[in-house]
Design brief:
This protein is α/β, with parallel strands linked by helices. The chain has a single domain, classed as Rossmann fold (3-Layer(aba) Sandwich), CATH 3.40.50.720. Helix content is 41%, strand content 17%. It contains 10 helices and 12 strands. Strand 1, helix 1 and strand 2 form a beta-alpha-beta unit.
């Protein structure tokens, strides 16, 4: 199978490369190629892929708030470019989206069928990408995930470990809840999902949920940073408004396809072990 992976140098992109090893891959990322450039359409089309996995995006949520044009150019119009390449070929596309498309104001986990209500530039630009995919293609997967982390990535886990090394008090919000997701687990779930031509929207996250504070607590415990003074807080100034309770429930993939992911605590433990051995 011929597979295009955009964002191939990112933490999910590297995991996808491993999950799809053995296939013929076209790896797309900066600086060689930008999905925001319309020239990416013939690059993808000329490869003649059987599947395009589009993971490239600007994921700096606060950065998007400060620079909306760039956020929309990459996350929305870049996704349109990739979708147009798939349209030209008649190839299916898998678009990686986010829990941030929801406003986080409800107590229950969000299902794939719940109505999005984005509250930040990042979230709106990612939802615009979803809309381009739905409008332009008939064969697509939209995979929403959350709180992604993996080796050599810029993520919450690595931020907590860096703060722990610096010493002093570490303040973490205790009133923001979500679904931590380990990049290799997501990549393996995607590899299973695309074996089935049941197109549509899927939520793929590690099972369970926690607050940012609970997440940080287990990160430091597993890393043996028991001497760090971790403090909960409910106040944290950010440029972007983030959803406070955007827990995702994997309903469609688990119910129809039997695709589920291990509990987030087990995944985090595996990550810390992998990190120690890296």
């Amino acid at each position: 199978m011929r597979v295009v992976i955009t964002g191939a140098k990112g933490q999910l992109g590297r995991s996808l490369r491993a999950a799809f090893a053995g296939n013929e891959l076209l790896l797309i990322d900066l600086p060689q190629h930008s999905v925001a450039d319309r020239g990416i359409i013939p690059v993808i089309a000329d490869f003649g892929p059987d599947l395009v996995i589009h993971g490239a995006a600007i994921t700096d949520v606060d950065g998007c708030e400060k620079d909306p044009p760039t956020a929309y150019r990459v996350n929305a119009l870049g996704t349109r470019n990739v979708a147009l390449a798939c349209q030209r070929l008649g190839a299916p596309m898998l678009y990686v989206s986010t829990d941030y498309v929801f406003d986080g104001t409800r107590d229950e986990p969000y299902l794939e069928y719940d109505e999005p209500n984005p509250t930040s530039v990042y979230a709106k630009s990612k939802l615009a990408g979803e809309e381009f995919v739905r409008d332009l293609l008939s064969r697509f997967y939209i995979v929403r995930t959350a709180w992604l982390y993996g080796l050599r990535g810029l993520n919450f886990v690595e931020k907590m470990l860096k703060l722990a090394e610096e010493g002093g008090n570490v303040f973490v919000v205790a009133n923001e809840f979500g679904s931590p997701t380990y990049a290799p687990d997501l990549a393996e779930a995607i590899a299973r999902l695309i074996q089935h031509p049941l197109y549509g929207i899927y939520h793929l996250v590690n099972e369970g949920s926690c607050s940012r504070y609970e997440f940080a607590e287990l990160v430091l415990e597993l890393a043996g940073k028991n001497d760090v003074s971790l403090r909960p807080t409910t106040f944290y100034t950010r440029a972007a408004r983030v959803p406070r309770q955007a827990v995702l429930r994997n309903f469609c993939a688990a119910t129809q396809l039997g695709i589920s992911m291990r509990p987030w605590e087990e995944a985090l433990s595996a990550y810390c072990e992998e990190r120690r051995n890296a």
